[in-house]
Design goal:
With 372 residues, the chain is α/β, with parallel strands linked by helices. It contains twelve helices and 14 strands. Helix 3 runs parallel beside helix 11 and helix 6 packs parallel to helix 7.
């Protein structure tokens, strides 16, 4: 996909020359289904971990001379409650497994520059953790992780990514864990393609997060899927600052240029809520659709109010539980899969309330508990 960027009123405005090369940026990663075909030995270990996550905790009663030290670096300052819930689920499951642990948590705000991110990672590593839970979205993070994988410790767990990097096959992280970004966007594309099929033309604009892996995996996948519908057309695309304010600004610009838009596609919760702010300001609620991505508390509330058209809901707490179970198995010396991918479910305004209630109870089974 050819791209030309310009700074426009606080957001990156993207002109897109559509072509089959749209997925080039993802070529460095194994798509999850391809990875499992190429590594059939992963199937049994993957199913074992999924069973452990879905079932009640089974403590291993390990003999620990000292607490296992876990450093968790995660984005903070987001409207989405995914990362907060993930941490709560991780700690709750660790306690239920009876593990003696020390969690060192560091919140990274999206606006931090490379120097600040480096300082935060250095501080985490100075504590000499046994496990480092990190994420991979930017080139800066890629550089740090590549260096860490050449060290004997800490063991690296990559959160919010389920597509292994091809270049790291020889020295992989302990675990990739998250919800498949591409699969989630394919679910949303299926839903909106069905709408487009019943209209003469279906126009949409893309609201990315900041440039990075997540924006590419979610946004470009949706664009590629919508291209399969002949009467669907991408009009504009913007990179935002991954926050509500810049997403609102981008959405307002899109609506001013193309007031006939049918959909503002949002790549994350913050961008979805910013897009809704713009739609309301323009008096277009109910005419221009906005999607969510993640299905956290804020999105579900907006869906219940009839504001969001649809979202793809993560069974949120499964990833925190998976990390806790993976750490216990690793301490036992038991095999682990390379990837844990959590379940995703399409939710729309037509989803029955009883079904949604059941999904919420399952998704937030630990993070809705009162914390001691």
């Amino acid at each position: 996909m050819g791209r030309r960027l310009a700074w426009l009123a606080g957001v990156w405005w993207l002109w897109l020359c559509l072509s089959p090369a749209a997925a080039d940026e993802l070529d460095a990663y194994w798509r999850l289904d391809q990875y499992l075909v190429a590594h059939p030995e992963q199937a049994a270990a993957s199913q074992t971990l999924k069973r452990l996550v879905r079932n009640a905790p089974q403590p291993a009663h390990l003999q620990q001379d000292q607490p296992v030290r876990i450093a968790l670096l995660s984005p903070g300052g987001q409207v989405s409650d995914y990362w907060r819930r993930n941490r709560q689920a991780l700690e709750t499951r660790l306690r239920l497994l009876g593990l003696n642990y020390q969690l060192l948590a560091y919140d990274r705000v999206p606006e931090q520059d490379e120097r600040q991110q480096t300082q935060q990672l250095v501080a985490a590593l100075a504590a000499d953790p046994d496990y480092l839970i990190y994420t991979l979205d930017s080139q800066v993070q890629h550089k740090y992780i590549a260096r860490l994988l050449n060290r004997p410790r800490p063991k690296v767990i990559l959160q919010n990514i389920t597509t292994p990097l091809r270049d790291w096959e020889a020295r992989p992280p302990l675990l990739y864990v998250g919800f498949d970004h591409q699969r989630g966007s394919r679910l949303l594309a299926d839903y909106f393609r069905r709408q487009a099929a019943n209209r003469p033309q279906f126009d949409f604009a893309m609201l990315y997060r900041r440039p990075g892996y997540v924006s590419t995996a979610r946004g470009d996948t949706f664009i590629e899927q919508m291209e399969q519908q002949p009467n669907s057309r991408l009009r504009l695309a913007f990179y935002t600052r991954s926050d509500r304010a810049s997403a609102r600004q981008a959405a307002l610009s899109a609506l001013e240029q193309y007031p006939q838009l049918d959909l503002l596609f949002a790549c994350a919760t913050d961008t979805a809520l910013g897009a809704l702010d713009a739609v309301k300001q323009k008096g277009l609620l109910g005419r221009v659709q906005v999607n969510g991505w993640g299905g956290g508390s804020q999105e579900l509330a907006a869906l219940a109010r009839g504001e969001l058209a649809a979202t793809v809901m993560r069974i949120n707490d499964d990833t925190g539980v998976a990390v806790a179970e993976a750490i216990q198995r690793d301490l036992q010396g038991l095999p682990l899969p390379r990837v844990f991918d959590g379940d995703l479910v399409l939710i729309t305004q037509e989803t029955p309330k009883t079904v949604l209630q059941g999904l919420q109870e399952r998704a937030f089974r630990y993070s809705d508990m009162e914390q001691e």
